[in-house]
Design brief:
There is one protein chain. By secondary structure, the protein is α+β, with helices and mostly antiparallel strands. Helix content is about 30%, strand content about 35%. It is built from 8 helices and 20 strands. The chain has an 8-stranded mixed sheet with strand order 1-2-5-6-8-9-12-13, with no helix packed on it. A hairpin with a 5-residue loop joins strand 3 and strand 4 (about 125-130).
């Protein structure tokens, strides 16, 4: 096999499990670099398609893609995506082979303050937190999810022949039947396992994969460093209370609590820097920004001041 065919085969396999945004850009550059790349890529995709078809004919039904009015189904390349891959390839796709290139995918996004319960076509369930975006791409061999932003908790239906893989920034988590939460932070990704065992590794392959058991969590930072530690039951329940529309604070700093509430609101809550390290306790509804602000201010000796869409917890002159 030539070097071009080898590279085309690798790209076809990657596309089959779902590309990250960076990989889409790199693939676009590779396709644009040489017209022979486009032909080799189409041949490899066609070969994979024939394999899938053969498996289907042997009796394994292809699962339907389920969506609703709030979701986007990618069962064919959009005009925008075609343009991303250049006019040459766009013309080839328009010639009738588009279905060979793109796997069927489902994109789910949530608005500010929205928490969604999403049944998946394999029997799994995703709970998607506020301000989140994910792409779900299932084939007969794989179940791939890309968490572009935000947070989601997954209850994975058992199927050892089809690993369930979540790619989220610098981290990859894989399970065959378990439950776990994945959250994107600004410079890291956090995985909390609530049931079973999840395999976690850095996308940059800077660290060997580790097995993370229920009651533990793994954090992968932007440099590919992986840390695994124990998270006790109450702490795990508090951390994942968002699934029930609640925020539980157990000696959390006010600054961290404010950051947590701001995930669920268009209005912004700010805190006087001199109060941000004070600890607060209690549980609140995620939609009760005013109630939290008033309670937190009273706990730390402050008061609330509103300026349009901004609430500020300020230090009381007498505190």
């Amino acid at each position: 096999m030539s070097k071009i065919d080898t590279e085309a085969s690798e790209w076809a396999a990657r596309l089959d499990r779902g590309l990250t945004a960076d990989e889409e850009i790199t693939l676009n550059q590779w396709l644009s670099a040489d017209r022979r790349h486009q032909g080799a890529f189409l041949r490899q995709r066609a070969a994979l398609s024939l394999l899938d078809r053969a498996r289907a004919l042997r009796g394994k039904p292809i699962e339907p893609v389920v969506g609703n009015e709030n979701e986007e189904i990618d069962d064919a390349p959009s005009r925008r995506r075609l343009l991303k891959f250049g006019t040459g390839l766009a013309a080839m796709l328009a010639g009738g082979v588009a279905w060979q290139i793109w796997p069927r995918a489902r994109r789910i996004t949530t608005e500010v303050g929205e928490i969604r319960h999403v049944p998946l076509e394999d029997g799994s369930v995703a709970m998607v937190n506020s301000r989140s975006a994910l792409r779900i791409s299932f084939t007969e061999q794989r179940r791939d999810v890309t968490l572009a932003s935000g947070e989601a908790w997954f209850q994975v239906a058992k199927n050892r022949e089809r690993p369930f893989t979540v790619s989220a920034g610098p981290a990859v988590a894989q399970a065959v039947g378990t439950a776990f939460d994945v959250r994107r932070h600004a410079d890291s990704t956090e995985i909390i396992v609530t049931e079973g065992i999840v395999r976690v590794w850095p996308l940059a392959a800077t660290h060997a994969a580790v097995l993370v058991e229920a009651g533990h969590r793994a954090i992968v930072d932007q440099y590919g460093n992986l840390q695994r530690d124990l998270i006790d039951g109450p702490a795990s329940d508090q951390r994942l209370a968002w699934r029930e529309g609640r925020i539980v604070l157990d000696r959390m700093t006010l600054g961290a609590a404010v950051e947590e509430f701001n995930r669920y609101h268009v209005e912004r809550l700010e805190v006087d820097p001199s109060l941000s390290d004070r600890e607060v306790v209690g549980w609140f509804s995620t939609d009760d920004l005013d109630g939290f602000a008033a309670t937190a201010a009273s706990l730390v000796g402050g008061y609330v001041e509103r300026d349009g869409a901004t609430l500020r917890i300020k230090k009381s002159p007498t505190a």
